[in-house]
Amino acid sequence: MLNVVIFGAPGSGKGTQSKLIAEKFNLAHVSTGELCRRAIHNNTHEGVIAKSYIDKGELVPDETIIDMLDAFLEKLPIDQGIIFDGFPRTVAQAEALIEIMKEHGTKVSVLLNLEVEKDELMTRLLKRAETEDRSDDNMETIKKRLEVYEEQTLPVIEFYRKKRLYKPIKGVGDIDDIFGRISEVLNSLK
User: What is the model's pLDDT at position 190?
Assistant: First the structure.
Protein backbone atom coordinates (compact mmCIF):
# COMPACT_ATOMS: atom_id res chain seq x y z
CA MET A 1 0.00 0.00 0.00
CA LEU A 2 1.34 3.42 -0.97
CA ASN A 3 1.29 6.06 1.80
CA VAL A 4 2.88 9.35 0.81
CA VAL A 5 3.81 12.39 2.87
CA ILE A 6 4.11 15.52 0.74
CA PHE A 7 6.19 18.21 2.29
CA GLY A 8 7.24 21.75 1.56
CA ALA A 9 6.94 25.29 2.78
CA PRO A 10 3.60 27.13 2.59
CA GLY A 11 3.05 27.96 -1.08
CA SER A 12 5.25 25.14 -2.41
CA GLY A 13 2.34 23.50 -4.25
CA LYS A 14 1.56 20.65 -1.85
CA GLY A 15 -2.20 20.96 -2.26
CA THR A 16 -2.09 21.08 -6.06
CA GLN A 17 0.29 18.15 -6.34
CA SER A 18 -1.54 16.16 -3.65
CA LYS A 19 -4.76 16.24 -5.65
CA LEU A 20 -2.94 15.02 -8.77
CA ILE A 21 -1.18 12.25 -6.81
CA ALA A 22 -4.42 11.17 -5.13
CA GLU A 23 -6.16 10.90 -8.49
CA LYS A 24 -3.40 9.09 -10.40
CA PHE A 25 -2.41 6.67 -7.62
CA ASN A 26 -5.92 6.22 -6.14
CA LEU A 27 -4.98 7.58 -2.71
CA ALA A 28 -7.16 9.20 -0.07
CA HIS A 29 -6.12 12.86 0.19
CA VAL A 30 -5.88 14.14 3.73
CA SER A 31 -5.00 17.79 4.13
CA THR A 32 -4.59 18.89 7.71
CA GLY A 33 -5.14 22.45 6.51
CA GLU A 34 -8.46 21.37 5.03
CA LEU A 35 -9.34 19.42 8.20
CA CYS A 36 -8.62 22.58 10.21
CA ARG A 37 -10.62 24.84 7.88
CA ARG A 38 -13.57 22.41 8.04
CA ALA A 39 -13.36 22.26 11.86
CA ILE A 40 -13.21 26.08 12.00
CA HIS A 41 -16.16 26.40 9.60
CA ASN A 42 -18.18 23.92 11.69
CA ASN A 43 -17.10 25.71 14.87
CA THR A 44 -16.01 22.46 16.55
CA HIS A 45 -13.90 22.41 19.71
CA GLU A 46 -10.81 21.56 17.61
CA GLY A 47 -11.78 24.29 15.14
CA VAL A 48 -11.85 27.00 17.81
CA ILE A 49 -8.40 25.90 19.01
CA ALA A 50 -7.05 25.69 15.46
CA LYS A 51 -8.35 29.17 14.50
CA SER A 52 -6.64 30.82 17.45
CA TYR A 53 -3.26 29.52 16.24
CA ILE A 54 -3.79 29.85 12.48
CA ASP A 55 -4.80 33.51 12.79
CA LYS A 56 -1.40 34.23 14.39
CA GLY A 57 0.51 32.22 11.76
CA GLU A 58 1.44 29.56 14.31
CA LEU A 59 1.19 25.78 14.09
CA VAL A 60 -1.93 24.17 15.53
CA PRO A 61 -0.95 22.05 18.58
CA ASP A 62 0.10 18.49 17.77
CA GLU A 63 -2.61 16.92 19.92
CA THR A 64 -5.39 18.80 18.09
CA ILE A 65 -4.05 17.89 14.63
CA ILE A 66 -3.44 14.26 15.60
CA ASP A 67 -6.98 13.90 16.95
CA MET A 68 -8.46 15.30 13.72
CA LEU A 69 -6.22 13.09 11.58
CA ASP A 70 -6.93 9.91 13.54
CA ALA A 71 -10.69 10.54 13.22
CA PHE A 72 -10.26 10.94 9.43
CA LEU A 73 -8.24 7.71 9.13
CA GLU A 74 -10.82 5.75 11.12
CA LYS A 75 -13.32 6.35 8.30
CA LEU A 76 -11.07 4.97 5.51
CA PRO A 77 -11.15 1.41 4.13
CA ILE A 78 -8.35 -0.67 5.67
CA ASP A 79 -6.50 -1.11 2.35
CA GLN A 80 -6.73 2.55 1.24
CA GLY A 81 -3.42 4.28 0.47
CA ILE A 82 -3.10 7.88 1.64
CA ILE A 83 -1.42 11.14 0.68
CA PHE A 84 -0.72 13.29 3.72
CA ASP A 85 -0.76 16.97 2.73
CA GLY A 86 0.53 19.28 5.47
CA PHE A 87 1.25 16.57 8.01
CA PRO A 88 3.53 15.94 9.81
CA ARG A 89 4.84 19.44 10.52
CA THR A 90 6.88 18.61 13.60
CA VAL A 91 9.06 15.68 14.67
CA ALA A 92 6.50 14.90 17.38
CA GLN A 93 3.82 14.64 14.68
CA ALA A 94 6.12 12.44 12.55
CA GLU A 95 6.60 10.10 15.50
CA ALA A 96 2.84 10.11 16.19
CA LEU A 97 2.18 9.29 12.53
CA ILE A 98 4.34 6.15 12.82
CA GLU A 99 2.17 5.01 15.73
CA ILE A 100 -1.12 5.95 14.03
CA MET A 101 -0.11 4.11 10.86
CA LYS A 102 1.02 1.08 12.89
CA GLU A 103 -2.42 1.00 14.57
CA HIS A 104 -3.95 0.97 11.08
CA GLY A 105 -1.60 -1.85 9.99
CA THR A 106 0.53 0.16 7.58
CA LYS A 107 3.41 2.66 7.35
CA VAL A 108 4.67 5.71 5.46
CA SER A 109 6.23 4.78 2.09
CA VAL A 110 8.00 8.05 1.24
CA LEU A 111 8.31 11.74 2.07
CA LEU A 112 8.34 13.96 -1.02
CA ASN A 113 9.77 17.41 -0.35
CA LEU A 114 8.83 20.14 -2.82
CA GLU A 115 11.85 22.44 -2.92
CA VAL A 116 11.03 26.08 -3.75
CA GLU A 117 13.08 29.25 -3.09
CA LYS A 118 11.75 31.70 -0.47
CA ASP A 119 11.18 34.58 -2.96
CA GLU A 120 9.05 32.30 -5.15
CA LEU A 121 7.08 31.15 -2.09
CA MET A 122 6.30 34.77 -1.12
CA THR A 123 5.11 35.54 -4.65
CA ARG A 124 2.88 32.45 -4.77
CA LEU A 125 1.37 33.09 -1.32
CA LEU A 126 0.56 36.73 -2.03
CA LYS A 127 -1.05 35.74 -5.34
CA ARG A 128 -3.07 33.02 -3.55
CA ALA A 129 -4.23 35.61 -0.99
CA GLU A 130 -5.68 37.71 -3.83
CA THR A 131 -7.35 34.86 -5.71
CA GLU A 132 -8.57 32.57 -2.90
CA ASP A 133 -9.41 35.11 -0.18
CA ARG A 134 -7.44 33.20 2.46
CA SER A 135 -7.22 35.15 5.73
CA ASP A 136 -3.99 33.35 6.60
CA ASP A 137 -2.23 34.72 3.49
CA ASN A 138 -1.21 38.31 4.26
CA MET A 139 2.39 39.62 4.29
CA GLU A 140 2.82 39.53 8.08
CA THR A 141 1.28 36.08 8.48
CA ILE A 142 3.16 34.72 5.46
CA LYS A 143 6.51 35.81 6.91
CA LYS A 144 5.57 34.29 10.26
CA ARG A 145 4.45 31.01 8.64
CA LEU A 146 7.72 30.72 6.72
CA GLU A 147 9.72 31.39 9.91
CA VAL A 148 7.71 28.77 11.81
CA TYR A 149 8.21 26.34 8.92
CA GLU A 150 11.99 26.82 9.00
CA GLU A 151 12.22 26.53 12.79
CA GLN A 152 9.78 23.72 13.52
CA THR A 153 9.20 21.81 10.32
CA LEU A 154 12.60 21.43 8.67
CA PRO A 155 13.73 18.95 11.38
CA VAL A 156 11.05 16.60 9.99
CA ILE A 157 13.17 16.31 6.83
CA GLU A 158 16.06 14.97 8.92
CA PHE A 159 13.68 12.56 10.66
CA TYR A 160 12.63 11.01 7.32
CA ARG A 161 16.13 11.24 5.85
CA LYS A 162 17.42 9.04 8.70
CA LYS A 163 14.65 6.52 7.91
CA ARG A 164 15.70 6.60 4.22
CA LEU A 165 12.25 7.72 3.15
CA TYR A 166 13.18 11.26 2.02
CA LYS A 167 12.96 12.23 -1.66
CA PRO A 168 13.59 15.87 -2.73
CA ILE A 169 11.53 17.12 -5.68
CA LYS A 170 12.29 20.31 -7.62
CA GLY A 171 9.08 22.25 -6.93
CA VAL A 172 9.39 24.97 -9.59
CA GLY A 173 8.30 24.98 -13.19
CA ASP A 174 5.16 23.80 -14.91
CA ILE A 175 2.69 21.91 -12.67
CA ASP A 176 2.79 18.93 -15.06
CA ASP A 177 6.59 18.85 -15.04
CA ILE A 178 6.64 18.82 -11.23
CA PHE A 179 4.01 16.09 -11.23
CA GLY A 180 6.12 14.11 -13.72
CA ARG A 181 9.08 14.21 -11.31
CA ILE A 182 6.81 13.07 -8.46
CA SER A 183 5.26 10.27 -10.53
CA GLU A 184 8.69 8.97 -11.44
CA VAL A 185 9.57 8.60 -7.74
CA LEU A 186 6.21 7.03 -6.82
CA ASN A 187 6.28 4.59 -9.75
CA SER A 188 9.70 3.40 -8.57
CA LEU A 189 8.16 2.43 -5.20
CA LYS A 190 5.56 0.04 -6.65
Answer: 75
